[in-house]
Amino acid sequence: MKLLQLALKNIAGSAFRSWVVALSAFLVASFALGTALIVHGAEDSLRQVTSRLGADIVVIPEGTETKIESALLMGTTTRAWMPIDRLDQVGAVPGVQAVSPQLYLSTLIDAACCSVSDMFMVAYDPLTDFTIEPWLKDTLGEGLKLGEAVGGRYIFVPEGEQNIRLYGYFITLKANLEPTGTGLDQSMFLTFDTARDIARISQTMAEEPLDVPEGQISAVMVRLEPGVDPEGVAVEIMHRVPGVTPITSPNLFRSYRQEMAGLRLGVVATMGLTLTLSVLLIGLVFSMAANERRRELGVLRAMGATGFFVFRSVLVEAGLLALGGGLAGIALTMLVTYLFRQAIVTSLELPFLLPSPLSLAGEVAIGLGVALGSITLAALLPAWRISRQDPAIAMRE
Predict the structure, then answer these.
(1) Do 25 and 325 form a contact (C-beta atoms < 8 A)?
(2) Could you report the per-residue pLDDT of 10-24, keeping only the tens digit for each?
(3) What is the C-alpha separation between 156 and 175, in angstroms, rounded?
(4) What are the structural domain ranges in the chain?
(5) Contacts of 352 (CB under 8 A, 6+ apart)
């Protein structure tokens, strides 16, 4: 009898034991893949949004760090203002190469004059911007005109409409940015002129006018000269410019990075405990199976099967069960992650970006490898013990 046939026969002959082992592999693989997707997806999302902002330092009104980080990362609407003269003050700091202002606005909640409820909007100055404008010129060949905007990945024109209505103003959506897995995917980017035009029209066309305070901005994006120390410039900005908080790019979203560090630590601890329990449980199952099959394996040995053949048959059986359960767990995890991505973001309050096909293949391989490795490890000792027993003694018991 061939090795694979014997393993399949043993699996079919003990359905309960096989289901226990396969279920363990299912849980191990799904947990390993799920946690890898969430942790790596959050890290990739943070890197992507930091790159999208394109600034070495972000200068914001003092005391608004948490609100603005939540707005930029999770799309939470916020209001934050500081005098526009802070722009020139920041630009005069040694080491600063370029500065550009931004306004953080939002649509109304459940208002007939807005196609999208409570959406985060970012207005920028196209004359000084070095974050959105380069992308627009590479993609569209030109910048945005009055009444035009670009949206995150999930901003779209309502069905049956030609434009997006904001405060009674009709916006033309020119393009969508690449996904970041953050709230920026559900945000809109427009010029200062368009924001002011919306505010003007909203005075008569909206349920509530858009408030764009004169002489106020929400943030200053800072690009530094090559070779300049960002931390040193940030300290200098804090000393020279009153009422602001400069945040260097590596320190942006610090609270979320700390949450992810805690999540990663918890995941490693939980994964270690899960693997330990799984190995112990499966080892017990295979030990019980070895005792039940002593006579059967003794007959095999008496018929000429070597101890190594018996050893391999147990490991192949374990491997087939691990492969089947692991593949099922991986398939379900991928389906749930894809279908309920937004629910994962909302429940964990962390950004999440689906991996590229290459990264996904690597994470799937890791999940399946963890399942196969843990099941095989659990079966090693029982397989070794059963392969070394004396056939004559085994047949008499």
Answers:
(1) yes
(2) 666 667 777 877 887
(3) 9
(4) 3-47+257-396, 63-242
(5) 38, 41, 42, 45, 181, 341, 344, 345
Secondary structure letter of residue 183 according to DSSP: G
At position 329, the amino acid (one-letter code) is G
Residue 154: predicted pLDDT: 79
On the CB side of 327, CA atoms within 13 Å amount to 5
Three-class DSSP category at 84:
coil
**DSSP-derived secondary structure for 195-212:** HHHHHHHHHHHSSS----
Pick the closest to residue 80 from 54, 57, 106, 56 (CA basis). 106
Q: Which pLDDT score is estimated for 40?
A: 75
Tokens standing for residue 377: 């490890």
Place of tokens 């499966």: 282
What are the Cα distances from residue 183, in Å, to 12, 113, 277?
Answer: 50, 22, 38
User: What crossing angle do the helices spanning 15-53 and 357-387 adopt, rounded to 10°?
Assistant: 150
Give the mean model confidence (pLDDT) for residues 83-106: 92
Q: What is the mean pLDDT of residues 161-185?
A: 83
- pLDDT bucket at 48, cuts 50 / 70 / 90: low
- Distance separating alpha carbons of residues 97 and 109, to the nearest angstrom: 39
**How far apart are alpha carbons 144 and 137 in whole angstroms?**
9
